[in-house]
Amino acid sequence: MAEVSRRAASRPSRGGLPNALFVVAAAEQIPTELVGLATTVRVTLPWGSLLRGLVGGSAAVASGIASLLNADGTLELLLAPAERDRLDGVPVQAGELIRAVTSTFEPLGLVLEQAGAATNAQVRATGSTWARKLLGAGRGDRSVVLIRLRSSPR
């Protein structure tokens, strides 16, 4: 995170992101100063308890993530679970994954805006090491799903 935050602090002409904020915190315990602050929250290729929380395995995780968004906010998820990961309770088929995420976040005021297979360009654009490995390996049995949800009026 140090390298990414250093690059984000650069001038915008050099790829800097003047409004980027990097926080180390548990999704279940979002700092109150961040509640309702974000226009966009991106969760890229999560693993373990964060992934489980996004698909309904933990109401506290989902609630914490949703709480970050402002009234016009967008939650963008790039998910790639596979059967071989042995993540009990995490769906691996795209349709099941989309339904699980949607049913997790609808009660929290988020509605599905877009969902489907992520393109190679979308995966590559994350710049993550895991994304590069996925693309280099040809994905095999691992599909990558892009899901966008938007805050809805409550």
Itemize the secondary structure elements and their pairings.
Blueprint lengths: L1 H7 L29 E7 L3 H7 L4 H9 L1 E11 L14 H12 L4 E8 L2 H5 L4 H8 L8 E7 L3
Parallel strand pairs: 1-2
Antiparallel strand pairs: 2-4, 3-4
Helix pairs in contact: 2-3
Account of the 3D structure:
There is one protein chain. By secondary structure, this protein is of the alpha+beta class. It has helices at 2-8, 48-54, 59-67, 94-105, 120-124, 129-136, and strands at residues 38-44, 69-79, 110-117, 145-151. Strands 1-2-4-3 form a four-stranded mixed beta sheet, with helices on one face. Helix 2 packs across helix 3 (59-67). The longest helix has 12 residues, at 94-105. The chain is globular and about 40 Å long.
Number of E-type strands: 4
- The parts where pLDDT drops under 50 for at least 5 residues are none
Helix content: 25-40%
Largest sheet: 4 strands, mixed
Shape: globular
Range of strand content = 15-25%
Strand order of the largest sheet: 1-2-4-3
* End-to-end separation: 35 Å
- Number of separate helices: 6
Task: Write the element-wise H/E pattern from the N-terminal end onward.
Answer: HEHHEHEHHE
Radius of gyration: 16 Å
Q: What structural class do the secondary elements suggest?
A: alpha+beta
Provide the residue-averaged pLDDT: 87
